[in-house]
Amino acid sequence: MSTSILLSISEALNVSEAAVRLLISILLGLPIALLHRYTLYGKNPVYQHLFCTSCGLLTCYWNYGFNTIHSAAALCLTYFVMKFLGGTSSCVFITFVINMSYLLYGYYTTSTSDYDIKWTMPQCVLTLRLIGLAFNLLDGKSSEEKLSGLQKQVALKTQPTFLEVAAFTYFPGSFLVGPQFSMKRYLDYVNGRLMGDNFNKAHLPDCVIPGILRMCMGFVYIVLFQLGSMFITDQYLLSSEFQEHTFLKRLLFIGIWGQISLYKYICCWLLTEGVCIIFGLTYNGKDEKGRALWNGCENIKLLTFETATRFNHYIMSFNINTNNWCAEYIYKRMKFLGHKLYSQFATLLFLAVWHGLHSGYYICFFLEFIIMYAEKDLTEILGKQEKLQGLLKSHPTLRILFWIVTKIYTFVFMGYCLVSFVLLSYSRYHHVYSSVYYCGHVIYLCYPIISILIKKLLLKKSSNKLKSTNEFVRKSSWDKQKIQEKHQTSTYFNIFC
Asked: Is 319 a catalytic residue?
């Protein structure tokens, strides 16, 4: 496709030429998946490896030219380490250092003040994929008694070949923007083991329609993103017009802008997930009615995301595969730190570094850390308020009002957190945060002090109430015991008389 055509499309959509190339590359996954389905599905695994590797490499080259050498270099270095040290802690450590160092080198040499679509985008996906592969080899050599259920599922007992690792790395449905999946899933897929007894070379799985439907949802979110970007852009938050609004209106606009900003990620994930479904890679067993589930690589739970009333809902529903990867390979491997809070902080720090060197990433994930701490703590406190819980259960109107308030709260402050993540540089996100007086930072940084007052006020009342109740119960039990003793004495007296 000529540069002039791409330029015309980018101008019409008001996006960069690199973004147009990326979108077309993702959409090319559809004919590639169909070609594989009707010519190679269930055939010799070597042919499938060659097909996936060549398609991924060509797509990468069309987007990033000779910078494709970076992903190839990371692949070769990682395979070399795994060939000689595979299944050891040293292999995991060296693989981690090599891939993270290479990625950070890419960020350092190519970084600008904006979020750019360049070779570091697929490189960050590749980094997690190769580090996860090293962990899978380590788990394959470990005793099964020490492994969790998921670790047993993805552990590799044998060293994969170079061609298998290359095909896994450049898989055309997920190389550019994800989703993440394990080498075990890929190998089971190409060898016909993923669907188990349901695998039949003569009858192809019914995954085309589910995949196309998922891609259609991706187009819906492309439209929503484009329409939203016509009204509220990144530049609008930095404009003098935005500053003229009232404080509450500025917060509301930040929430709307944040939601629109997330749509560009959602549309890409829905499209790539649809491609993976059409490949048949996402098979995840059957439901209670015997229908095949194709959510094995699901990266976004749309209903949970759109109806979120807690920050935890966003974490559970957004970028699911990356979150699961971090939970399995970072958070759970940090048990030696001795506290869940330390493990959570280390995981979020890793995520910030993995995203890049801009200070905005670190501010964003730090906000996520303190917000999740506050939310969890406050949820536990309110959960102990029986009177409040009783009111919410017995009064539907109050329940609806509570839902609306919490929805607006999460909607606004999710946008607030994204300001630094999207705008990246201090001068820009400081401009927006100062326009709302850094209210989110003040609230959540002060929460440890506020929580002490809340606990003294609410939990003391609950404690006094519980104490009174226990006293009443004790007194009632004592009175009941005296009556029983008196009754027994009277009974004994009557018997002896």
From this structure: yes
